[in-house]
Amino acid sequence: MVAPPDGPSASPASDAEVQAPWSLPPELVPSAFAVLVASGLDDAEVARRRALYGPNRLRQRNHRGALAVLVDQLRSLLVALLVVAAGAAFAFGEPIEGAAILVVVLLNVAIGFATELRAVRSLEALRRMGQARVVVRRGGRAHHLSASELVPGDVVLLEGGDVVTADVRLIETSRLEADQSALTGESVPVRKDVAAAAPDTPVAERTGMLFKGTALTRGSGVGVVVGTGMHTELGRISALVEQAEPETTPLEKRLEALGRRLVGLTLALAAGISALGIASGRDALRMIETGIALAVAAVPEGLPVVATLALARGMWRMARRNALVERLSAVETLGSTSVILTDKTGTLTENRMRVVALYLDGGVVEVESVGFRCGGSAIDPKDDPVLAAALRVAVLCNNASLARGQERGVGDPTETALLELGAAAGLFRDELLARAPERREDAFDPALQRMATFHDDDGGEGFAVAVKGGPEALLSHCGSVRTRGGVRPLDAATRAAWHAAAEAMAARGHRVLGLAMRSAPSLEGDPYRDLELLAWIALLDPPREQVREAIEACTAAGIRTVMVTGDHAATAATVAEAVGIAADRIVDARGIGSIAGADPALRARLLEAGVIARASPEQKLDLIALHQEHGAVVAMTGDGVNDAPALRKADIGIAMGQRGTQVAREAAAMVLQDDAFATIAVAVEQGRVIFGNIRKFAVYLLSCNVSEVLTVGLAALAQAPLPLLPLQILFLNLVTDVFPALALAFGEGERGLMRRPPRSAHEPILTRGHWIVIAAYGALLTAAVLGALATALTLGRSEGEAVTISFLTLASAQLWHVFDMHGDGAWALRSEVARNPWVWAALALCAALLLAAVSVPRLADVLALRSIGREGWLLVLAFGLLPVAAIQIARAALRVLRARPRDRL
Asked: Would you tell me which CATH number, out of the four given (3.40.50.300, 3.30.70.2750, 3.40.640.10, 1.20.1110.10), belongs to the domain 272-311+690-899?
């Protein structure tokens, strides 16, 4: 633990005591760390302690350095094959070719190194964007801060669902429990309190402490930070330091498997071509080098690296649109999502709660920006004892913060709305607490939907209990109701009237909250017994503006959107109708129990439902499993600690970045930084774009590689001059393959992607149709190269000039071939590929390198290139354009055939 800093504000406690802060009585902890609980540290003291202790971060042992990335590049099969080729060249007395091959090795390693290092750094930067935030009391106010800004002595406000971001000594708790399994291995949450423990108490038994890396499962509390960064228990256990090793996604694994399958075939083919050439009397060194070069050209070693870069760039695009993807694997899964199970509050709605009305015995009080109105007339809450009592309970039974002069509160949106309501009547929580201090809190329980606080009875004996909760959760515990004529029993008729009032409010799309109170002689006992009902509060959370359009886009893309909420069915139906979800198919999950054990008819209703109201966290888990059993790829949104299991269970768990608990964010694969449903639609579209880009460059690379292998193989079989020499093949592999492939990975995607059904999650990267297309493309490129070679020889060109023409023909054909990588519905120069500026930049760079290869004497000599004159360049241009022209004509013919109506029989 961290001892307090020396100096004027240093602690009066001894260093020994601070080294074991769990042994201090809770009332001595603030003084031990020189802080006042009511105000927290000031800015000057925070700056001094941060300079002394550093940021609240663990050492990044998982950081993948540049050297590690470089070593990975040197381990590749590509490098091994090239080194063997260089060794063979030196062994046969060809030092220039050997040195040239080594240069190619360095260039390949440099490109791979730069590409992968950028991807790794992109992922690390994205992870830093998702750092946890915490509520800290500083300068007398509550603030949302990054956890890295915490210093020893900070006063933190904690609630169920938070991830603990530093070691904290508790000084106030209410039904607080923590999941310490990551630190201690305990499988069940541990109850926390403020009791002191002996200095030698084991970590697992320090009930007055919270530890960095653990999570709060329920309750609330206040604590003082006693350890940050490496001075925490988590920091001392190196085995539990965060591990962010670059993960291998299923897609990357499939790409690697594809590469491995091609290796054997490629090596066998290259060996066969080399043997055939040697047997026909060709130079042995040249044929060995040719075989190795073909193997290098044919093995798609660049696929995983380019795929990683495509995924990382896609993650950056999503991050700019407020979708922070935590895992690379989520990016590819997004493209096949078929069902979105979405929460209502904050996702489909604005999550900017405001109170619009209160239902009291005898009438409705409307809340407007100018004040309170009842029956069309303005009223003063001080003149209405029932309204005044309700507002007092709303402000006291609250964990948010809103000081006088502060425009917006800090905390849960519903609770801040209640504080703003109280402020409109001149009631502020800190001022009320000064007269009626809080002595006990029964924290909000999501399962029971209620909360209570005990306060000194202002001017009387005993305690005043302030209670808020869901209408049904409170109504069953109320025995009386306060009216303007006094307190009277809550008989059946009155109870029915209050129930009907709550239903009517919910039917108008309002969230309904109940307020009640009671007097208690002591702090012990059930706070919810014999409550006195005060009011229903109607809160409005309007739908977000772009939700309807986003849901329509998802529907067009074959994705079903289902609202799953714990709210009242009438409220859910109103919001569903406003945002375009099928509000006529509603299932009220209350009373259903376990969905897993439901009868087939009910399960079928649940599968077809557009809205599922009153759903519990356990039912959300069952709903995910139900849809997955029927072949759906499920995305699930959530914000609470109870949503964490469902977020893990879903194929894509989506947490809310603003209102979501840190536990939910840790469990999710994606975090919505703006909590907006429209961001989900954007992320799904980007997932489809990324997968489409990966398919494009996979087809491009493999068809180019097939053309190189076929060109040399067929020439060897025909006993013709080799159209490509070994170093020329390596040059093509380095120039015309890598840069256009990278450009394709950066594409913005085809138009109309969100008007297609989701692909199957089990669909391979390259289907049978793609392999047929690869073979056809490769054959066309090969035909153009061999045609150029034959024409050049027929026209009396020397073998060196003819080989130069065939080399340039293949290079230009491969560059033009990038425009074949577009959707079926567009012309080559009007497609998304032509609109990609990276493609044009890649083509310009490759063209410049090809011109340099021909015009720079030293480079031309190494590559054995000759001057070909104007006629030779015309041949290159004509035969280089033939494949792309043939492909575009074939596509146009197919479009015409598809558009032609079939004759009726």
From this structure: 1.20.1110.10
